[in-house]
Structure formats: C-alpha cells, structure tokens
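[job 0412] stage=complex_fold ligand=adenosine-5'-diphosphate status=START
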Amino acid sequence: MALIVQKFGGTSVADIEKIQNVAKRVIQAKGEGNSIVVVLSAMAGETDRLIDLAYRASDNPTEREYDVLISTGEQVTVSLFAMILNKMGHKAKSFLGHQVKILTDKSHTKARILNVDTDRINYELGRGSIVIMTGFQGVNQEEDITTLGRGGSDTSAVAIAAALNADVCEIYTDVDGVYTTDPNICENARKLKKVSYEEMLEFSSAGAKVLQSRSVELAKIYEVPVYVRSSYNNEEGTLVTKEDEDMEKEVVSGVTYDKDQAKVTIGQVPDKPGIASRLFTPLSDRNIVVDMIIQNASIEGNTDLTFTVSKKDMSEVQAILEKVTRELGATRIDYDENISKVSIVGVGMKSHAGVASRMFTALAGEGINILMISTSEIKISCVVESKYTELAVRVLHDAFGLDYKD
Ligand code: ADP
Ligand code: ASP
Ligand code: MG
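[job 0412] stage=complex_fold status=DONE, emitting structure tokens
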C-alpha cells in the first residue's frame, strides 16, 4: 500500500462535472489499496477573478486582507470535492491550510512553507478517509492566512508529500507531462519521460509554469518523486526525479519563456562603490526577486543599470526606486513591461562551446532583437520584445533539434 499525494490544478476542477471526473480517479487509486491525500487549486479563472475584485476595492489592497480573499477559491473546491466523494459513498474530509497547520513565514502573497503538521492528516488517513487539502494557502505564526504565490498549489502538494514521506506526488494538469517547450505554443514539442530535479528547476525558474519552481526546490531537497500527468487521460506522464543514467543528456533539452517580466533601466547613476547595494537592498528587503542585471561601462563617472523584475511587483518597485534614485542622484528611470524572457536550458551545455552563438544566430535569422542576455552553467536567457515570444520559442526549439519527429 502506497501513500500518494494527488494534486489537481484549476482546469481539472473547473466545474462540477470535471470534479466528478477527477474524483473517480481518486477513488480508483484508493480502491487499489493506497492512502490518498488530494491537494486542490481553485477553479480555473477564480484566483484571477478574486485578484480583480481586490483591485476594484482598493488600488493598493492590504496584503493581509488580499491573502484572506484570494485563498478562498481553494476553500470552494475542497469542500465540493469532499461532498462529491461523500455522495459517491467514500469517507473524505476537506481541510484548510490553518486547520492542519501549513505553517509559513510572514511574507504575504509569496509566503514560504516552514512546516507541515502531519498529525491530523495521519489521523484521518488512519481512519480510512481521503484527505482533501487546499493548495496555495498557509498560516503564519500570527495565525494570519498567507498565500504562496501564483501556481503555489504545486508547492503545497510537494510540501505535504515531503512531510508525510509519501511514495509519490502526482501533479495532474491540462497537459500530459513536461515537454521540451510549452506544447500549447509549439506543436512539435516533445514529451520528456524523465527529467532531473536540477533541469526541472531551471525550466520552472525560467518560466515553464507546469510546476511552480519552489515546488521543484522542495522536491529536490526532500527527494520527492513528482509525476506530472494529465487529468483527462491515462497517458504516461513525466517523472521528475534524481539524475540517472537513462536520462537524455542533450546539450539543450528545453526552451522556456516568461511573459511576467518587466525591465527597469536607471540612467546616469554615479559609478561609486555601494551603489548597487543601495539600489537592490531595499528591493530584497521587500522580498522582490530581481532576475537579470546588467551594468554598463561607466562614462564620465556615470553608469546605466538595467534589471528585470516580475510585473506584479512593478508598482512596489516604482515606489521604492523613485525614492532611492533621488537619493543617489540618478537622472532617469525607464520601465518597460512589453518584454519577455526566452531561455534555453540543458545540463549538457556546461561542456559545449557555441551554444550561445547558435541561439543568437537563430533569433537574428527571424529579425528578433535581443534586449538583454544572461547566462548560467546550464541556461541562456534573452530578453526580447513580448510580441516575438512565441516566434522566438519555435525558432529556438527548431534550431536545437528538439522538434518531435515521427
Ligand atoms: P494547473 O492549472 O494544472 O496548475 P498550469 O497552467 O499552472 O496548470 O500549468 C500547465 C501549463 O503549463 C500547460 O497548459 C502549458 O501551457 C504550460 N507549460 C509551459 N511550459 C511547459 C512545458 N515545458 N511542458 C508542459 N507544459 C508547459
Ligand atoms: N489558485 C492559485 C493560482 O491560480 C494557485 C494554483 O492554482 O496553483 O495561482
Ligand atoms: Mg499551476
């Protein structure tokens, strides 16, 4: 008998009929003798609707109340799911984050899970119940509700699986696995049978939203096998696990994109020691992730600094920077939200020359201008105008020979 955590994303629980369908899948796994913990997202579109409501109530909603509101979508799906299982004759109970105690830090809207109390879950499983948990939400030390950032139900599922020492964490979604790129924009994308935690982490942090990157971090630390599959069919999915011999060792194994980025340029900053620290410390104090950073060579003692942040952090970034740049004597700040980041990822890149130039040549061949570049050992990212995102992804997928062939 195995202990399985099954997470269903928003499209899998989008209406009563879909919930009934996935409930059958849960019942089947239970009927095979397994203990099942289900983790659910809100119905597709619901979290967006709640966020929109929050901004209609206030242009700067209090973070505590924002989390109270946007976490409610998951309360709806867990209760409906339990009702449906009960109606089908199965013991099932729903729980919110604070009831089992998914303890997080205090940073509202992007909290990190610190601990999962397993007592109540184990007690209910011991009584033969299917346990249905809300994804996305937790509670902090002050007993306030927190949320884990968009896509955070993946992280809830992996954290619960790690705490319970589950045999596997199954992520059910609207695609049947992890592909070489988003199959919804590139029809030649190829499904990967297995992918290592390291590579998946690069995929996710570079924008492949099929798994939230924090969930992959946790899976890697606690060695939780994560199996990504479709909630609509029984196709074999993708196993995210430790690197092993039979994994593909391509130079480039995938192409990702991130439309959530915005670019900030601070012009004419005096080029003195401590400037970067003065600029970026207030951002990190507010838990704002800065991704790519470029500093130009200084001319007559002044330099330009360009960096990217998440679009959703822009208003906070603007408020912080207006103040800091005035203090630093910078003359100009430009904000550009019309960009996206396109990346190629592959562990084989470490030992191959010429990968970057192949990427730049492929983009140039389509007349796509590169606005920023960053490289790591196993990833190269380019910022491009957002209107070129899909084209850039397809061109790179083709240029690195990733296309599916019959
Ligand atoms: P859920 O609501 O189930 O959490 P998400 O929308 O968060 O689903 O994630 C699934 C989506 O991830 C897919 O519909 C697909 O468009 C996108 N995606 C991006 N990159 C990839 C990739 N490399 N492989 C599979 N899906 C990807
Ligand atoms: N409902 C949340 C969101 O839409 C969490 C999730 O679906 O993973 O981001
Ligand atoms: Mg998701």
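The chain has 13 helices and 20 strands.
[job 0412] exit 0
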